[in-house]
Amino acid sequence: MQLRSLIPAIIAGFFLVFQGCNEKEAMFDLFAGTLPIFEVSDGESLFYTTPRSLFLRMMDDAIELEGEIYSIERTSEDDQQVTFLASFPLETDVTVTAMTYRKSDQTLTLEIGSLGKSVNLELFDAMIERKANEYIEVDLAADISHLSDNQKEMLGLLFQVADIMEELYWAQVFPDKEAALSSMTNEYVIRFFKINYGPWERLNGNLPYLSDYGKKPAGSGYYPADMTLEEFESLEDDAKTSLYTLITRNSEGNLKVIPYHVAYADQVEKAAVLLREAAELAEDEGFKKYLQLRAEALLTDDYYPSDMAWMDMKDNDIDFVVGPIETYEDALFNYKAAHESFILIKDKTWSEKLAHINSVLPQMQKSLPVPENYKSETPGSDSDLGAYDVVYYTGDCNAGSKTIAINLPNDERVQANKGSRKLQLKNAIRYKFEEILVPIGMVLIAEEQREHVTFDAFFENTMYHEVAHGLGINQTLDGRTVRSALKEQYSALEEGKADILGLYLITQMKEMGMMEEKDLMDNYVTFMTSIFRSIRFGVASSHGKANMIRFYYFQEMGAFTKDLGTGTYQINFEKMQLAMNSLANLILTTQGDGNYELAKRLVEEKGFIREELQADLDRLKDLSIPVDIVFNQGPELLGL
Ligand SMILES: [Zn+2]
């Protein structure tokens, strides 16, 4: 049902008559906000509103919303506010019936009478400034005084390769970058555009934050925006599902598959030359070999040999993660890998502390709370766990929420052969703890439990998350890969698995006496606090989704309770353990069965933010607690 109060032409007439009479008021401007998920009943069934960006322009006796003009009627005005009667739809059965403009903070509240709900809009300029400031800037520096001159020179080359990855990532997610930027004048819009790598807000469900843009294409720039699923299904080319191909259209308008090394020939050739020069300077034999093979990989799209070489590297001071790696950006199928890079300096002291964990992994795998056939694979004991300071993020890992731990390679063949390497980005983890986690705990965790929010627990939980990616199984019981069986739901399930098994591992190791004196409550309370942190990453993020699922699962199991008086959450230790075991079992068996339908249902039923939780997140927003960090980074920060 579409409601339209008056014919636009009549409204336009009103304007011509009245526009000149009114003095210009602050409220005649562009307002913006997000329509959240509301529960709506049409009398027979319940449904939920679709989250959407709202851009509403206030005019004298009318508003403009999505190109339509609707009349409004001013009903009162005093020093504090102006009220209006209105009747315009946000979507079917969701009609704005009244509006209040509050002068003190220049906000506009839309009342949806039939639902008894309201939506708050801000002046667009104020909103974009607030959003840009939700990212706190920190310096990415590290001590490199122990590096040789050769190593420092090599670092300079790696920075150049990293910048090429940045360029390729932009080409994949928003090729019109330069044109868009050159049309922008508002400094906060520019800052926010760069943080999000485009006009869609990554930590708000990829909704557009600029009124000129529609929905973000699910397949990002990896497929033609107008491609239908049937069209893709009927394309006969095995390379169409490859991680390293683009789907475009030929001159007849038919789909065609182009390998990355062809599509990006200029950039990868340049990167390969730089990588080979860097290899000349490398002092560590393993690193030298890896850089040479990585150069080759960029030119051929065969990453297997370089991934294997990367696994063999153990003792180098510097590490460089580079190439097309994660598939999160392709929300359509999770097929296509996005370019990125990290430049890392190894922290040898911390790395030594982590070394012992690998030896207990096979034993931990056996302890998982599932039947034998769901844990029949042997986790690679060759896995390497290290702590690093990260000095450069480019491309995919720098978009939206910043990665604080790396578990690579993703190639199951390499994992089966050599396990994987887990890199903890210690300086980034500490920034997130200090700037975000502690302040969240101060607001949302029961006062008497706040002392349990600790850096050590946060670092441990993060570290064991990465270890836990290596547990469970990569192959379903009937022999498919879990990734292919769970398709676009794979990432959320896999991240959910790593989170819950990470906590499970810590619990097991403590109970088996493998950990020194520690209070598990630190890990549990810090884990819960971090759920709020990650939920703020939104539904567009696999990590965000995984945390929402866990929040509601925990709530149903009584793992925490909320004190409505103080608005804080209290963890129940015993029930949290039960919930942890049962969720671990649910995820592991869903993966083992390759049960796509169940995975999908779990994400659909629990993978979104309901109103009460949204109200808690809004409190964090009102207190200006940063959502994430952004980096002041580059060779100059290292004195290069
Ligand atoms: Zn993970």
Lay out the secondary structure.
Blueprint lengths: L7 H11 L11 E6 L3 E3 L4 E3 L3 E7 L3 E4 L2 E10 L3 E11 L2 E9 L4 E6 L4 E7 H10 L1 E5 L9 H25 L3 H6 L4 H10 L3 E2 L5 E2 L20 H6 L10 E5 L5 E5 H4 L1 H17 L3 H16 L3 H9 L5 E9 L11 E9 L1 H7 L6 H7 L16 E12 L9 E4 L3 H7 L2 E5 H19 L10 H15 L12 H5 L3 H22 L8 H16 L6 H15 L3 E4 L4 E4 L1 H21 L2 H11 L4 H12 L5 E5 L8
Parallel strand pairs: 11-23, 18-20
Antiparallel strand pairs: 1-4, 1-10, 2-3, 4-5, 5-6, 6-7, 7-8, 8-9, 9-10, 12-13, 14-15, 16-17, 17-18, 19-20, 21-22
The site of zinc ion has 5 residues, from helix 15 and helix 17.
Biggest sheet, open or closed, and with what strands and sense?
8 strands, antiparallel, barrel
Q: What portion of the residues fall into strands of 2 or more residues?
A: 15-25%
Helix fraction by DSSP (H/I, runs of at least 4): 40-55%
Give me the number of helical elements. 22
SS-derived structural category: alpha+beta
Unreliable runs: 1-23
Distance between the termini: 63 Å
Describe this structure in words.
It is a single chain. With 640 residues, the protein is of the alpha+beta class. Among the domains are: 2-131, no CATH class; 337-638, no CATH class. The strands form seven sheets. An eight-stranded antiparallel beta barrel has the order 1-4-5-6-7-8-9-10. Strand 4 (52-58) and strand 5 (62-65) form a beta hairpin. Helix 17 packs across helix 19 (542-556) and helix 18 (520-535) crosses helix 19. The chain is globular. The N and C termini lie far apart (63 Å). 44% of the residues are buried. The model is unreliable at 1-23 (pLDDT under 50). Zinc ion binds next to helix 15 and helix 17.
